[in-house]
Amino acid sequence: VVVNGEMIEYYDVSGCYILRPWAFSIWDILK
Hints:
Shape: flat
Strand order of the largest sheet: 1-2
Number of domains: 1
Structural class: alpha+beta
Order of helices and strands: EEH
Number of strands: 2
Helix content: 10-25%
């Protein structure tokens, strides 16, 4: 599990990755 810049938070409870709203534009560029 790699989490950079607090853009993605991993919740053990839900077992899924939560991408913070402000990071969507950055994530789109990175991928």
